[in-house]
Description:
Structural class: mainly alpha
Distance between the termini: 83 Å
Helix content: over 70%
Largest sheet: none
Shape: extended
Number of strands: 0
Number of domains: 2
Oligomer: single chain
Number of helices: 9
Radius of gyration: 29 Å
Amino acid sequence: xxxxWIIHATIMNISDHITFSSRTHDAWVELQKNYGQADGTRIFxxxxxxxxISQNNLSVADYFPEIKKLWDVYNSVINIRHxxxxxxxxxxxxxxxxxxxxxxxxxLVCLNEQNKTVGGNMIMMKPLPTFSQAYNVILQEEKQxxxxxxxxxxxxxxxxxxxxxxxxxxxxxxxxxxxxxVR
Length: 183
């Protein structure tokens, strides 16, 4: 059952290598041996890729999943060892916080022109906000900008509608001889 899950969870050209494994352990060892190690080129790609993406004309909601995928790959390849002291070890916590702060800074610096001011203000905060806090602030800012542009359109529509009603009322008030001249 587990072997079937592993086969279905891998992409087709990789699953072809383990399809005929008789034991789950053998399939797992084969995957680890062939795909579990990152060479220098892969490590360089994983470190470079997050710097090659920016928000451009994407919304924050669309930009975040793109950069998050790259960070997840980075975090899986750059495995921070914590065997001796455990997850609560001060050095592990410090390194983990440093990586989180680097990723937050990269996210904020690569925002588009509309969000650069908000991102810049967050970079200057002490202590830095969590990533979730920064993301939510920028998302709210985008929504607020959307509401402001919508309210501008609504007010413009209201003005145009009022002009149309005024024109209609004035044409109805004037007698037929005036309407004939206007046409």
